[in-house]
Amino acid sequence: MSKSFSMPPVAKRLTQLPPYLFVQIDAMKDALVKQGRNVIDMGVGDPDEPTPKFIIDAFMKAVKDRRHHQYPSNRGLIEMRTAIAIWYKKRFRVTLDPVTEVLPLIGSKEGIAHFPLAYANPGDSVLVPDPCYPPYKTGTILASAKPVMFPLLAQNKFLPDLNALARKHAKAKLIFLNYPNNPTAAVADLKFFREAVDFAHKTGIPVCHDAAYSEIGYDGFKHPSFLQIPGAKEVGIEFHSLSKTYNMTGWRIGWACGNREMIAALAKVKSNIDSGVFQAIQMAGIAALKDNGAHLNRMIKIYQTRRDLMIRSLRESGWPVTPPKSTFYLWSPIPPKTSSRELAAKLLQEQGIVATPGVGFGDAGEGYIRFSLSIPTAQIQEAARRIGRCAVWKKG
After folding, report:
1. In whole angstroms, what is the distance from residue 143 CA to residue 124 CA?
2. Strand (E) positions, 195-348?
3. Is the separation of the CB atoms in 181 and 209 below 8 Å?
4. Which of 88, 122, 151, 217 is 20 to 30 A from 379 in CA distance terms?
């Protein structure tokens, strides 16, 4: 009888990865659902409204064209890259070369997670905000590099101290920035982006800016692009996505744009990992980028109604929450000496509300909890009612 096979240990890099936050939350939620509880999920930011019909129609037309059934170009359709460049020119007055400065991605998450492979060698440092969208950190770990976390603090409007980073970590290989920010919903202005460009020139550290939420702004607010700053294309790239803007999270389409050397490096990584974005989806993306704004205006009104409803209810219940200018998240402080994990568990167990503990986004996220507004308005109203009866803050 042959000797039984013993599976070797997984790679060390996998043991360094933290459990993906939303997998844990889903497991807790599923357990309650199996018990027959009515659970309202305000955890993951996944738009509840459908993808607009005009985008679906463009996809249906393209998917019937056999030319789109073969391997796509790894660099993406020139039509898609051109549409992105035209959109950037119209939206931000930023000029991009669609041939060398734009790269479609299988969702911006994919490009972000792969990017450290292009520049970070094993053991190199990559500057990652804390709290943060998890792929900045996990992508760095998977590249066998070292994530160096820097805090985003309320007293600095959740913006990093770039001068301190320049003094302490001038040898890092990359820095990730993200505004409008997930999870804090903080925004940046052109002054901050100018400081980020100066930081890159001073240190030689390229900037990777994630702008996935730039189009969701309230009360007329329009978020700027990092690439609007003169010299930004010399030092960095910007990641963008159609997921949140056009309710296309499941379609998996986004892009990176900016510095042509960084774009070429990411394209080289991707050419050895994937085969590009399905061309019919790219054609749908082109239709989205040509939209006249009617869809986005409608979505912003929906999210703003939900934001205002939640803010009013939370404040009435004693929560000191500030209305965000952008994103569809509320990043709320929790009572001192309260664990965000314990509070999230309390909301789930007692009220059937899924909220995301701030510490799940990093140690500096402790002291906060995140609510997503990407659920139907009727559920927002019910969630607000339930949260209001859960004694979290002591009134008065």
Report:
1. 9
2. 207-210, 236-241, 254-258, 329-333
3. no
4. 217
Instruction: Determine the residue type at 352.
Output: G
Tell how strand 254-258 and strand 329-333 pair up.
unpaired
Whether a cis peptide bond, with omega within 30° of 0, leads into 324 is no
Residues 6+ apart with CB under 8 A from 82: 98
Backbone angles phi, psi at 325, to 5 degrees: -85, -20
Q: Tokens for 101?
A: 């400065």
Residue 224: both structure tokens together: 């700027």
Cis peptide before 131 (omega within 30 of 0): yes
Summarised one tens digit per residue, pLDDT across range 317-366 is: 889 999 999 999 999 999 998 999 999 988 998 999 999 999 999 999 99
Extract the tokens encoding 163.
């001068």
Compute the distance between CA of residue 199 and CA of residue 191 in angstroms, rounded to an integer: 12
Bridging pattern class, strands 236-241 and 207-210: parallel
Residue 362 CA to residue 360 CA, distance in Å, equals 6
- Distances from the Cα of 243 to the Cα of 118, 120, 224, 251, 272, angstroms: 24, 27, 19, 8, 25
Annotated domain spans of the chain: 13-50+294-388, 53-289
Q: Is the pTM of this model over 0.85?
A: yes
Q: Residue 17 is encoded by which pair of tokens?
A: 């990865």
Q: What is the pLDDT of residue 1?
A: 56
Which segments within 11-135 are labelled E, that is strand? 40-41, 102-105, 125-130
Question: Is the bond preceding 180 in cis, omega lying within 30 degrees of 0?
Answer: yes
13-50+294-388: CATH class? alpha beta
- In terms of pLDDT, which residue wins out, 51 or 388? 51
Backbone φ/ψ region at 36: left (φ over 0), alpha (ψ -120 to 50), beta: left
For residue 306, the SS3 value is helix
DSSP SS3 for 41? strand
What burial class does residue 367 get, using C-beta atoms within 10 Å of its C-beta: 0-12 exposed, 13-18 middle, 19+ buried?
middle
Q: At what angle do helices 377-388 and 294-316 cross, to 10 degrees?
A: 10
Per-residue pLDDT tens digits for 294-314: 999 999 999 999 999 999 999
The matching CATH number, chosen from 3.40.50.720, 3.30.70.2760, 3.40.640.10, 1.10.8.10, for 53-289 is: 3.40.640.10
When the pLDDT of each residue in the chain is averaged and rounded to a whole number, the result is 94
Identify the bridge partners of residue 102 per DSSP, sorted by sequence position: 257
**CA–CA dist 288, 248 (Å, integer):** 10
